[in-house]
Design brief:
The chain contains six helices and 17 strands. The chain is an alpha/beta fold. Strands 1, 2, 3, 4, 5, 6 and 17 form a seven-stranded mixed sheet that branches. A five-stranded parallel sheet has the order 8-15-9-10-11, covered by helices on one side. The protein has a three-stranded antiparallel sheet with strand order 12-13-14, with no helix packed on it.
């Protein structure tokens, strides 16, 4: 395996797969650094009274890209990058988590985000069976239902706004409150008659049968209360997987990689795409498009570098 590539893509989710596919099409020397292919795209989500649904638009196209990458990519490094370093000549050295390093003329970061979890009983059991980490993905399934939203920042406020026209009632549990950006007045929305706000309560466990049926809370005085709900949305802020480039590129206040319209970061030769960036949409089809755009931008960057 060569130690230097035209392009190294970090992350094998939708954005990363699209980026690799486009760089293969460009006949560039490309390596993918990712433990797997596809990320967390394909899983069924079920609500009581409805058949399990793969409610992820773009999942089929993601699998097509994964098949293409699996068939054509010669250098899939099943690891992660712990650090990206810019060398004096403008190229990059990537330290691999399990040891060793590779070098690249350009890097495309598509490492995604991870959801903050509750770490309470029933959370794992009911994930995908009424419990969701993305209201943007699953809110339309809960038309006329009673739901609970857990959070305390902008993402939870957004969930309340998009669920209010759909849900019958919303229990909004303020947990791990976060400072909203200056000028935001989102919490005024919580006065909506469909919303009951719980302050000073912590989640004890998620309960259910085959699906979510409720959530148990404990108050600061030890009081326990059970809320009957059909769905639970865990809406804490997402955590960008930016560790490999955290000290190298510009990040916003949430830790997302700042990119321009061409998916270029603040460092020439490093591009980024998908939810790890400031274009975080929690939607596969957006990540696919951003990954393709980042690949095209990296290809053009290399073409101009070759002329220099």
């Amino acid at each position: 395996m060569p130690t230097a590539f035209d392009v190294v893509v970090l992350g094998g989710g939708p954005a990363g797969l699209a980026a690799v596919a486009y760089e293969l099409h460009a006949r560039l020397s490309v390596a993918l650094v990712s433990p797997d292919l596809g990320g967390k795209v394909s899983y069924p989500f079920a609500v009581r009274g409805q058949p399990p649904t793969e409610y992820v638009w773009g999942a089929g196209l993601t699998r097509e890209f994964a098949d293409k990458v699996a068939a054509e990519l010669q250098h899939h490094i099943k690891d992660t990058a712990s650090r990206v370093e810019r060398l004096e000549d403008g190229t990059f050295r990537l330290q691999l988590t399990e040891g060793g390093s590779i070098e690249a003329r350009t890097v495309i970061v598509c490492t995604g985000v991870r959801a903050q979890r509750l770490f309470v009983g029933g959370e794992n059991e009911y994930w995908g069976r009424g419990l969701s980490y993305s209201a943007l993905s699953h809110a339309p399934l809960f038309q006329g239902c009673n739901v609970a939203i857990l959070g305390g920042g902008q993402r939870a406020i957004t969930a309340a706004r998009i669920l209010t026209p759909l849900a019958k009632h919303i229990d909004y549990i303020i947990a791990r409150p976060q400072q909203l950006p200056e000028g935001e007045s989102g919490e005024q929305w919580l006065n909506h008659p469909k919303i009951t706000v719980f302050r000073g309560w912590e989640v004890q466990q998620v309960i259910g049968d085959d699906f979510v049926t409720g959530i148990d809370l404990v108050g600061i005085n030890g009081e326990v209360r059970r809320l009957p709900v059909d769905g639970i949305f865990v809406q804490f802020g997402l955590l960008p997987n930016n560790g490999a480039v955290r000290e190298l590129v510009q990040l916003d206040h949430n830790g997302n990689i700042v990119i321009d319209q061409q998916c270029a970061t603040s460092v020439p030769g490093i591009f980024a795409a998908g939810d790890v960036t400031t274009v975080c949409a929690e939607q596969v089809v957006v990540s696919l498009g951003e990954g393709a755009k980042a690949a095209l931008s990296a290809w053009q960057y290399l073409a101009y570098q070759s002329e220099a």
